[in-house]
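Entry 14. Structure prediction run on the chain below.
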Amino acid sequence: MSSKIDPRSAVSSKAQLGDNVTVGPFAVIEDDVVIGDGTTIGPNAYIADGARIGKECYIHHGASISSVPQDLKFAGEKTTAEIGDKTVAREFVTVNRGTVAHGKTTVGTNCFMMAYAHVAHDCEVGNHVILANSVNMGGHVVIEDHAIIGGLVAIHQWSKIGCHAMIGGGFRVTKDVPPYALAGSQPLVFEGLNSLGLRRRNFSPQSIAAIEAAYNTIYHGQLNVSQALQKLREQNLIDEVRHIVEFIASSERGIIPSFRR
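Output returned:
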């Protein structure tokens, strides 16, 4: 099926558009762009060189994909911004392409980026991630699958947010948020499990209990983090707890603390 390109848009003849792509009025699509089948590019959207957009995505009014990184070290190197299938970028979302440090910025499949969210250079956003309005990410942030980030959250560069974690709106992320966590308050702290999210995603009661027990060891076991991880390693761990251990062991910024009881 042929694409539907509004005559008021500016689409490079060198751009690669799949079947049934829709391009709205005054959108700009530059040369080095690949857009998958069934994707919609809304009015006034800017799709810059290096954009790689998957199938059945919806890039709304005024969004900017693969624009130049906000990094003074960027020297015009050839890099990309890659967005997976069925991902939505609402009004005025910005996704910068990568730098020589990583080469690309990636957003996975089935993600929902709400209005004014910003994904900075070299970030890695997993699948099924929700970024609420005006989430602002520094460079090199990693967000794992199924994480939910509340509106107006500022995420410090190089921070990591684990899978299935949920961060409340209006907070700052300056340390890593471990998987399955519910995080809030200022400064940001571990407030328990994202239990509702885990149940909605069909985690078994046994798995949720094992995750909770692991965090009791880490946060309330009267041990430092290294000792807690070693204690957990000595147990027969389910996959979810093993991932918690690996995530925390690889953390360079350190993890958020627990609330004080």
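The chain has a mean pLDDT of 97.
Filed with the rest of this week's runs.
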